[in-house]
Amino acid sequence: MNKDRHIIHMDQDAFFVSVEVKKNSKLIGKPVIIGGSSDRGVVASCSYEARKFGIHSAMPARTAKMLCPEAIFLKGNMDEYSKASHEITEIITQRVPLFEKASIDEHYIDMSGMDRFFGCMKFASELRQTIIKEMGLPISFGLSVNKTVAKVGTNECKPNGELEIPFHEVRSFLNPLTVNKIPGIGNATYRKLSEMGVRKIQTLADIPQELMFKILGDHGLSLWQKANGIDLSPVVPYRERKSIGTQTTFESDSMDISKMKAILTGMVTNLTFDLRSQQKLTACITVTIRYSNFETVTQQARIPYTALDSFLILKAHDLFKKLYSKRMLLRLIGVKLSHLVSGFEQIGLYHTSEEEYDLYQAMDKVRQHYGVESVVKACIVAPPSKDEKNRIIKYNPRKKTEEERKKSRIRTFINSDISSVNKSTDS
Ligand SMILES: [Mg+2]
């Protein structure tokens, strides 16, 4: 533990619900659930009143309805939540030099070195009050020596709370808490630790480090460190915006618009699958094209946070249409998704029917098992070949030669490391 670090974790309280309550005061004090309807879909967010009934994010809406029949179900509006999210980030940008946007409603602020000029607690408290005043939305924060302890602090003082955990109190703060309070502990790990008789953080912290490594590998080591209040991960500056992108250079330059659109569709499909696998959402899409004379042009669009293909494909086609102004051959096309933040349950909320959401989940499962190109949209596959009598020759992907497979492979580059994923719940 480094006692010279001062990290603030700020998190909106029941963010989506709070945005709805701000619009409609009749919802104050009611059990409100965002996402799905009363009998289908999953809970994306719920009010603290609903949580008293045992309802939580990612729970099937049907179960939530059983637990609390009088709950009010709202479809949710990702456009509005994204707008509020950007406004909060803007308030922080104006006051803080070094911060990280961790999810749609969470920020980490690094105050290290500035604590001599400002009292960190006073600064954080004033920033919180500013956000409450300007946004009309409740927010909580934790202040401690690293990201993990600060986040646990926020979760402990929610809603409408603030909590400082100074260096010398870190262990005594963490010790009595249950191990599932450590960020990043999934259900499987929690079960495994329970089977080992490990329920309290103190028990986990006292296990020899080597033993934790032996049982759970690197993940075990990381958990052991967190249980001991150790977390060296840096606050990643917002200006180093994370992105994922992909680009394709054609074998021979082309002017075939429908082929370009099919390629764009394929690239966006692959990228969004990556996003969902990493439990990330994007708020910005960029399309790049390069003409045969090497002139390169780029168009970018800000979008509400999403990880779904359908909307992003339309956006990509739209940007391509705006970009491709010269009747010239193209040699390269590229797509980038940026302004990434952690988010997962929220993907079901955005401009999508429940059938579409179910379809995505099913397709992602197939892709996780059999590879990203095992399921593709029909428009990406070349039109069926016909024989001399104009009969369709059945498409059989297994007949693809190695050469053809190589050609169809899309080069993917990752600008920054998005492997460290904190599963975000809207709390
Ligand atoms: Mg939150």
From TrEMBL:
Entry's EC annotation: 2.7.7.7
Annotated cofactor note: Binds 2 magnesium ions per subunit.
Keywords: Cytoplasm, DNA damage, DNA repair, DNA replication, DNA-binding, DNA-directed DNA polymerase, Magnesium, Metal-binding, Mutator protein, Nucleotidyltransferase, Transferase
Pfam families: IMS, IMS_C
Site positions per UniProt: Substrate discrimination: F16
Positions annotated as active site in the UniProt record: E106
InterPro entries: DNA/RNA_pol_sf (IPR043502), DNA_pol_Y-fam_lit_finger_sf (IPR036775), DNA_pol_Y-fam_little_finger (IPR017961), DNA_polymerase-Y (IPR050116), DNApol_IV (IPR022880), Rev_trsase/Diguanyl_cyclase (IPR043128), UmuC (IPR001126)
Origin superkingdom: Bacteria
Keyword Protein biosynthesis: no
Needed co-factor(s): Mg(2+)
NCBIfam families assigned to the protein according to its UniProt record, in alphabetical order: PRK02406.1
Protein name: DNA polymerase IV
Phylogenetic placement of the source organism: Bacteria, Pseudomonadati, Bacteroidota, Sphingobacteriia, Sphingobacteriales
